[in-house]
Specification:
mainly alpha, Rossmann fold, 7 helices, disordered C terminus
């Protein structure tokens, strides 16, 4: 399961990693959109963040009911709910794709379809730039990502393919038996 703030490349990396590992890839935001028949941005606009978070929790629970091992990318704010954090840990290895706010701001500079990057008067975080919002979100969510993460991969200055390779290597290393003699 891939977690991290928006802009870290979770969805793209999930698809690449799934291909490398011969596994299917699932994006919880896409599950939410498919069920709702609306985009995440439309859900935020019509139902608010709270409405989206309810749908997101359902999507994470749905992943647990899917057959076979999967690579799952989870929306950046999913870690806000304790039930989601518990579900993520129960579903398998959690990999935090971590990036500096400046990297995220550069990747997300257009801000399209990113409701939490709105800097207009309705912005609940009171920030005036996307970078400020990303700094606040990163600060707020960091302890939650740390709580769920089994593996951390820094994505700054890396392509999605390089990130996928690092995640694959970290997963392989994690699953490899420890070197040395076995206890008797």
């Amino acid at each position: 399961m891939l977690v991290g703030i928006m802009g870290t490349g979770k969805s793209t990396v999930a698809g690449l990693l799934g291909g490398m590992l011969g596994l299917g890839a699932v994006d919880t935001d896409q599950l939410v959109e498919g069920r709702a028949g609306r985009t995440v941005a439309e859900i935020f606009k019509e139902d608010g963040e709270a409405g989206f978070r309810v749908a997101e929790a359902r999507a994470i629970a749905e992943v647990g009911e899917m057959a076979g091992p999967l690579v799952v990318s989870v929306g950046g704010g999913a870690v806000l709910a304790p039930t989601n954090r518990s579900a993520m840990r129960a579903l398998g290895t959690v990999v935090w794709l971590r990036a500096r706010p400046a990297t995220l701001a550069e990747r997300l500079r257009a801000g399209h379809d990113r409701p939490l990057l709105s800097t207009g008067p309705g912005n609940p975080r009171g920030a005036t730039t996307a970078h400020d919002i990303l700094v606040r979100l990163s600060t707020e969510r960091r302890p939650l990502y740390e709580e769920v993460a089994d593996i951390v991969v820094d994505v700054d200055d890396l392509s999605a393919l390089e990130v996928a390779r690092r995640v694959a290597d970290a997963l392989t290393e994690r699953e490899a038996p420890a070197a040395g003699p076995r206890p008797r």
